[in-house]
Amino acid sequence: MSAVYKSLSSKDDKKDEDSVEKNKQRVLVLSSRGVTYRQRHLLNDLVAMMPHGRKDAKIDTKSKLYHLNEVAELYNCNNILFFEARKRQDLYAWMSKAPNGPCIKLHVQNLHTMEELHFTGNALKGSRPILSFDKNFDEHPHTMLIKEILIHIFGVPKAARKSKPFIDHVLSFTWADGKVWFRNFQISENESSKTAPSSEDSPVLDSEKEKSSTKGSKPTKKPPALQSELSLVEIGPRFVMTPIVILEGSFGGPVVYENKEFISPNAVRAELRKRRSQKYNDRAKAEAERAVKRKNLRLDMGPEKGELDEDMLFA
Prior knowledge:
The chain has helices spanning 2-19, 37-49, 67-74, 114-117, 141-154, 203-215, 265-296, 310-313, and strands spanning 27-31, 53-55, 79-86, 90-97, 103-112, 127-133, 164-176, 179-194, 225-234, 238-249, 252-258. The termini are far apart. Strands 1, 2, 3, 4, 5, 6, 7, 8, 9, 10 and 11 form an 11-stranded mixed beta sheet that branches. It contains 8 helices and 11 strands. The protein is elongated. 34% of the residues lie in helices and 31% in strands. By secondary structure, the protein is α+β, with helices and mostly antiparallel strands.
């Protein structure tokens, strides 16, 4: 009977384990060719914070991005974080749910790596973070979708293979000015001793001392209680992401959302070059007008020569 009971109980335990839904999230992290050293260091910092991530080699193509779904399937990943570098100065981030989507394209600006910032914060490698989102993410449908994809990519599952059973840092996502602001903070816990109140301020202690003195026993001193104070210390990295477009599929499909206020960095640089060239064009136009004016006034020809001039007499 005991053997039968053990077999039945083991089956019940297996059923209970199967009924619990497991959060299986694996992220494929990779970049394109042409990334700078700062962008490469940012990629390494993010990989170090994501124990459920799988870093892969650089990809050559920038047009056929749908091939990343096949790469993610090979590594058993259901999320993709792809950094695309353009002209060795512009960085775009693709966040996708493989293989069916959706997919978000963002422009990364004002990036600072951990090596540049030199902050005092520190966190255990492989620890799970607390994701903190601004309340503005719940105001619009596209921001709610961005929040959900950020949770799937940066949220470390409880049973991740390389994760540690500790929570010692906070990933902060703030929605302001139509951009996503990323910050990483350490949860710092400081223990400060709580001093006991003095006998002058508390009459209760005086009465207890009198009672103890009448009985002839010595008063016992209690150890000071320890009170922990929590604070946040920034670790890094930090960067800002501007959403450009949201696609229904993974690296393809119809457009779900498009940011009409986004201006391409190429257009900004072209406008700056146009303004600098406008100064030269104005200066050249002024010189041409001045030459025509001198010609009409005959200033370059000099005064008219008469019959008694030396050039006319000794010609």
